[in-house]
Amino acid sequence: MLEKLIKQNNITIHGSGSKVMFFVHGYGCDQNMWRFITPHFKDTYKIVLIDLVGSGKSDENAYNYDKYNSLDGHADDLINICDALNLQDVCIVAHSVSAMIATLAAVKRPELFKKLIMIGPSPRYINDANYFGGFSQKDIDELLETLDSNYLGWSRAMAPVIMDNLDRPELADELEASFCQNNPEIATHFAKVTFLGDNRNDLKKLSTDTLILQSKADVIASIEVGQFVNNNISNSKLVVLETIGHCPHLSAPNQTIEAMKNYLL
Amino acid sequence: MDYNIDYKEFYNSFPSGYFCSSPNGTIIDSNKNFLELTNYSREEVIGKKKFTDFLSLGGKIYFENVFAPALKLSGNIEEVNFNFTKKEGTILPVLVNSVEIKDSSGTHLYTHSAIFNIAQRKKYEQELLRSKKNANELSNKLIAVNKKLRSRTELISKQKLQLKEFNQHLENKNRQLSSFAHIASHNLRAPVSNLMVLKDFYKENTDLKDKAMLFSKVDTVIEGLNETLDELIESIKIQGNKDIVFDAVNFDTFFAKTLVILDIQILDSKAVVTSNFCEAPNIEYPKLYMESILLNLLSNSIRYRAHDRIAKIHFHTEIINNEILLIATDNGLGINLRKYGHHLFGLNNTFHRHPDSKGVGLFMTKTQKEAAGGSVTVESEVDKGTTFKIILKKQK
User: Fold this and answer.
1) Potential cystine with B313: which of A229, A233, B205, B301 (Cβ 3.0-4.6 Å)?
2) What residues in B contact A244, CB-CB < 8 Å?
3) Helices B361-372 + B287-303 axis angle, to 10
4) CA angle, A263 as apex, A260 and A264 as ends, to 5°?
């Protein structure tokens, strides 16, 4: 089971601490995005990094479109990994969509998780009458179009012809070597699950002690969304970081580390 | 030889858009080409706009989730396709290459980005996609035609099989008939020549007593002849029954089987096929003949449907005068019975100018029915439809 999971989620374990810090990347990237953060915790924590199935160097063949048709599929993976590695009192650090994946996991198995640190979470991206998520359905459709044309700069409908060319494996190698390049078909499916999902009701069920980290300007998860998340979790704290963009752990790693450390004291 | 390169001029006339942004994304310088591509003035962009301001919301999601992290992690990124929105609102498809410039301590100073106009390439790509779509459609059409052809072939080979079976039946019958003729000629010759002789005697003789005796002999010979004939008829009856096995036939089951065989034809023709066999749900009848009769009647109705209306085909059973009738009604092309009626059930007779017409089915239907006992009648009106009534047999 453990070996299967290691291959499936490209699990890597670092650090020498006794406590466990479990990092889960968000949509579009992989475990590389934690590289500015993890060195600052590796002495006090055992650090577990994974790639969500379908992202990074996870096992693409494990991407079952039915299982991952909702975030629950990924949440079950998190639980299975904790069980297989016998992790306890986990501090889980989750970016973007993974904040909701971690929420689902912690609602299902609250005893596994001691703390939850969310970075740029959003339970719902699309606006409705009484909720501001930041996007309309049209915007998400446009994103899917952008995804479609960002595989070698060509529309994905053309790309299979290129990628199936067995005489030129260097094309595939080139993609593998670069960061945040995922299988386009899976990326599109994951984008749909991520950006069309609605996890607002799950926040209320969460009992884990939670920190919400939020850039002061983030088009993906605005301050309003951060406040909504904070207001709907019974036991949470919101910290706004003096940086912009959706990845404060990349654009302002020091601030992010400081906020995490303050919270974990 | 030394060239005196004016780098400012070089920068401005550089054949692609170029801009430099601060770590927070604000554009702090750009070349003329970038401004021309986006139709903004220098004052509107420098110190005011960010990279993401040129993107739609969908593009921004991609920028934040993929482009920015990848650039942060590897220091540069190449060949990312974005749609930039020009000042007037139109879309400029571009490829973007970006690189982060850092000082010796690794602090991020600014980001250089080059954008390449790929409007022509996008158009070309659209063309390719359109062609690909057309090719896919064509291929799908071919697959459909192929499927149709295959199902027709299946139908024809099924009919061929039935013809073969029927042929065998005819051959059997022929053999029986010729042996009947043989037996008849042998068994009948003797009493007939006896009769001839007795007739001659009778004519020649004048004695009334003798005549009466001769006539009683004629009577005996006739009786014997009659017996022989009865035997012969009985023997042929038994022989005839040998190769016709009567099975328990449930109309619903057999009709359902027929629908499966003609599935594709029914789908293609969009014919509405209904049935109601509750008046006589079952019959004792040769299985193969029943299959063949249903198949031929239904495929005929489909084939000779009128193309200007939805084909409605209904099969049902009735009991009239203790006989089970199988009735097939359609609203198809119909048949001019006055003109073609006498040809209707002949082999190789067709009465539609239809490319599919072979004239096999009805011939088989009639002959098979007669072999198993029964008859067929037809009512039809040109362009109104046709009703076949098949009297299957006397009900026990």
Assistant:
1) B301
2) 24-25
3) 150
4) 85
Q: Which of B337, B275, B339, B267 is nearest to B302 (CA)?
A: B267
pLDDT at B356 (0 to 100): 40
Most confident of A110-119, B123-132, B290-299: A110-119
Angle, helices B361-372 vs B119-204, to 10°: value is: 40
Q: Consecutive 10-residue runs of chain A (265 residues): their mean pLDDT?
A: 92 92 92 92 95 92 95 97 95 96 97 97 93 90 77 53 48 49 81 92 96 93 95 96 92 94 94
Task: Tell me which residues of chain A have a C-beta less than 8 Å from any C-beta of chain B.
Answer: 26-29, 32-33, 35, 96, 134-136, 139-147, 149-150, 152-155, 157-158, 178-181, 195, 218-220, 244-247, 250-251
Q: Do the chains contact at A150 and B62, CB–CB below 8 Å?
A: yes
Please report residues of B whose CB lies closer than 8 A to that of A52. Answer: none
Model confidence at B35: pLDDT above 90: yes
> What is the distance between the terminal CA atoms of chain A, rounded to a whole angstrom?
35
Chain B residues touching chain A at CB-CB below 8 Å: 23-25, 52, 56-62, 64-66, 68-70, 72-74, 77, 79-83, 95, 118, 125, 128-129, 132
Q: What is the pTM of this model?
A: 0.61
Q: How far is CA B225 from CA B179, B187, B212, B213, B234, in A?
A: 18, 9, 20, 18, 14
Helix (H, G, I), strand (E, B) or coil at A160: helix
Nearest to B69 among A139, A218, A247 (CB): A247
Residue B37 pLDDT > 80: yes
